[in-house]
């Protein structure tokens, strides 16, 4: 997913990886569930929270605007089929949603909730980590 200006993924590759419950809960600090996805992030728009090249864990049960909390970082596909990683800021007093970057060098986008009806929300980011965390655990085994 792109933390930047968007990324189309014509050649999406994925595989199922079984992750130990202890690794999730004790190393990553993630509550144990079975409905997580992991995606690599490309781009700098979500720095410093998510670094370019980091892996993020997504709670795929939070996959609609109603299930996303104000301030959540989410993965979504827009109506141009571009995959993004952005922060969602909901306004309780009107119909606007701000699609925001954490890096101030990237601008925010204000949209009406109705304009998001064609967006596909993959889920909310619950953890960001780099590959070193995984390698450290492998080296311990």
User: Which CATH class applies here?
Assistant: Mainly Beta
CATH topology: Umud Fragment, subunit A
Rg from Cα:
15 Å
Q: Care to count the β-strands?
A: 7
As a percent range, the share of helical residues equals: 10-25%
Name given to the CATH homologous superfamily: Umud Fragment, subunit A
* Beta-strand content bin: 25-35%
**What distance separates the N and C termini?**
30 Å
Which CATH architecture is right? Ribbon
The pLDDT mean sits at 83
Q: Output the structural class.
A: alpha+beta
| Shape summary | globular
Protein name: Peptidase S24
InterPro entries: LexA/Signal_pep-like_sf, Peptidase_S24_S26A/B/C
Keywords: DNA-binding, Transcription, Transcription regulation
Pfam families: Peptidase_S24
Description:
The longest helix has 10 residues, at 131-140. The protein contains two helices and seven strands; from the N terminus they run αβββββββα. It has one domain (21-140): Umud Fragment, subunit A (Ribbon). The chain has helices spanning 21-27, 131-140; strands spanning 36-40, 55-59, 73-77, 83-90, 96-100, 109-112, 120-129. A seven-stranded antiparallel beta sheet has the order 1-2-7-3-4-5-6. A hairpin with an 8-residue loop joins strand 5 and strand 6. It is α+β, with helices and mostly antiparallel strands and 141 residues long. The model has no long low-confidence stretch (mean pLDDT 83). One of its GO terms (molecular function) is DNA binding. Residues 2-125 form the Peptidase S24/S26A/S26B/S26C domain.
Layout: helices, strands, pairs:
Elements: H1 21-27, E1 36-40, E2 55-59, E3 73-77, E4 83-90, E5 96-100, E6 109-112, E7 120-129, H2 131-140
Antiparallel strand pairs: 1-2, 2-7, 3-4, 3-7, 4-5, 5-6
């Amino acid at each position: 997913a792109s933390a930047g200006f968007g990324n189309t993924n014509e050649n999406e590759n994925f595989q199922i990886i079984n992750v130990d419950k202890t690794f999730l809960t004790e190393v990553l600090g993630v509550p144990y569930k079975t409905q997580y996805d992991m995606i690599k992030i490309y781009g700098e728009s979500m720095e410093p929270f998510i670094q370019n090249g980091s892996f993020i864990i997504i709670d795929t049960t939070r996959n609609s605007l109603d299930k996303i909390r104000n301030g959540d970082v989410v993965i979504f596909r827009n109506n141009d089929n571009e995959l993004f990683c952005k922060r969602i800021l909901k306004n309780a007093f009107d119909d606007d949603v701000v699609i925001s970057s954490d890096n101030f060098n990237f601008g925010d986008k204000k949209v009406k909730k109705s304009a998001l009806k064609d967006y596909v929300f993959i889920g909310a980011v619950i953890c960001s980590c780099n590959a070193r965390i995984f390698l450290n655990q492998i080296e311990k085994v």
